[in-house]
Design a protein that fits this description.
With 390 residues, this protein is an alpha/beta fold. It has two domains: 2-50 and 284-389, Aspartate Aminotransferase, domain 1; 58-280, Aspartate Aminotransferase, domain 2 (3-Layer(aba) Sandwich), CATH 3.40.640.10. It is 42% helix and 15% strand. β7, α9 (186-198) and β8 form a beta-alpha-beta unit. The chain starts with a helix and ends with a helix.
Length: 390
């Protein structure tokens, strides 16, 4: 425990010391696609140092010239151990298929489990790529907006039931939910599973943010009608190392069977090596990052509480905040105003649901996965803007 606490303290000190100039040297999307005077709180990347276990695995693969076509055995076996040890979810390596990334896995699952013209339930606000996948596949969007209640965001089970009764064949579940940060409870998942079973449909569960949740129930523990896709990329901040794992139940094994061999080769050897290392032993990196994200989440919570024009149901995990700024005086496109006048890049809520959505328009998604000092600078800029418009 003392060693773990010491490693966590060192990582936290390293994060606190992050310099804006160093972050701007990165060539990733978060920092590389913005102007030099803009601070980024938009795309889902963290500013934190890479876990040494991932760095060492990638360097070792390159040093050995291990850059050919991948064999995923060690990767899927490591995930199976991690799922059992961390989530009490027993999956066999034979149920696991490597894919290029989580979106590729979701697309493969929907392609097999549904047909062109079928309805697919999506819980909005939602990760915008889900909407693009449905359009690409020719599936019909069955939008079920989350309910915004005094205790936070929750599923509208009546709307989901109606959509399934109307012919929707699948539900795309984001768990933990992007952008609200909800971690769906066992009771909620069980209720959803009952509705899906009653209509002979399936669930495709995106659990890419799950490693960031200390207390998490995988959907695959609840129901056999599901396909789960997950990865190390969000939890350990290695999105550029393309690779994910698709988990099929016996009832959905045809999804894996339909994935052609060339699709299974699209996750590179370095990405699978890093994934296997992180699933196996990350040296306490993830636990330390969870603790640091609790600090930045609390910092954001304190700031919101001082701003009467902003509402936020505090996220239960991760680093994404879904802020309701409809009463903040920023107009119909608040993210654009913040970018133009405060020079902070945010994700506009309008991207997360069809046009005219009451759960997305007038919202912004704020990524607080940076250092506390940089976060305070961002919030100070936005606060100055809000003071000038109210």
């Amino acid at each position: 425990m003392a060693r773990s606490s010491s490693a966590s303290a060192r990582l936290h000190a390293e994060i606190d010391a992050l310099r804006e100039a160093d972050l701007r040297r990165r060539r990733t999307l978060k920092w590389g696609a913005i102007d030099a005077d803009v601070l980024p709180a938009w795309v889902a990347e963290m500013d934190y140092p890479v876990a040494p276990a991932a760095t060492e695995a990638v360097i070792a693969a390159v040093a050995k010239g291990d850059l050919g076509y991948p064999v995923a055995r060690a990767y899927v076996e490591a995930f199976a151990r991690w799922a059992w040890e961390r989530q009490q979810w027993r999956v066999e390596p034979a149920q696991l298929t490597p894919v290029a990334d989580v979106l590729a896995g979701i697309e493969s699952a929907l392609h097999t489990l549904t047909a062109p013209g079928d309805g697919v339930v999506v819980l909005t606000p939602t990760y915008p790529a889900f909407l693009r996948i449905l359009k690409k596949l020719g599936r019909r969007l069955s939008e079920c907006a989350l309910l915004d209640g005094p205790d936070g965001w929750r599923m509208d089970f009546d709307a989901i039931s109606d959509a399934l009764a109307g012919g929707a064949k699948a539900v795309v579940l984001c768990h933990p939910h992007n952008p609200t940060g909800r971690v769906w409870s066992r009771a909620e998942l069980t209720t959803l599973a009952g509705l899906v079973d009653a209509h002979g449909a399936h669930v495709v569960s995106d659990e890419i943010h799950a490693p960031l949740a200390a207390d998490f129930v995988p959907y695959g523990l609840i129901a056999g009608h599901s396909v789960t896709v997950t990865s190390v990329t969000k939890g350990w901040n290695v999105a550029g190392l393309k690779g994910a794992v698709l988990v099929c139940q016996p009832e959905t094994a045809r999804v894996a069977a339909a994935i052609p061999p060339h699709e299974r080769q699209r996750a590179s050897v370095p990405s699978l090596a890093a994934g296997a290392a992180l699933w196996s032993d990350d040296g306490g990196w993830l636990a330390a990052i969870r603790d640091y994200l609790a600090l930045t989440r609390a910092e954001l919570r304190k700031w919101v509480d001082d701003r009467p024009g902003i509402r936020w149901h505090t996220a239960e995990t991760g680093y994404l905040a879904w802020l309701d700024v409809r009463d903040a005086g920023l107009g119909p496109d608040p993210a654009e105003v913040v970018l133009d006048r405060a020079r902070v890049a945010l994700d506009p809520g309008s991207r997360y649901a069809p046009t005219g959505s009451a759960v997305a328009d007038g919202f912004i998604r704020f990524n607080h996965a940076t250092s506390v000092p940089l976060l305070r600078t961002m919030l100070g800029r936005i606060g100055d803007l809000l003071d000038s418009v109210q």
